[in-house]
Amino acid sequence: MTTLVIGGAGYIGSHVVRLLLTKGEKVVVVDSLSTGIEERTAGAELVELDVTAPDASEKLAFQLRAAGADSVIHFAAHKQVGESVEKPEMYWHDNIGGLANVLAACASAEVRDVVFSSSAAVYGVPDVDLVTEELTPQPINPYGATKYVGEWMLADAERAHGLRTVALRYFNVAGAGWPELADTAVMNLVPIVLDRLEQGKDPVVFGDDYDTPDGTCIRDYVHVLDLAEAHVAALDYLRGEERPHRVFNVGTGTGSSVLEVLDAIGRARGVELTPEIGPRRAGDPARLVCSATRIEEALGWTGTHDLDDIVRSAVEARRGAGRP
Ligand code: WQD
Question: What are the NAD-dependent epimerase/dehydratase domain coordinates in residue numbering (predicted)?
Answer without folding.
Answer: 4-251
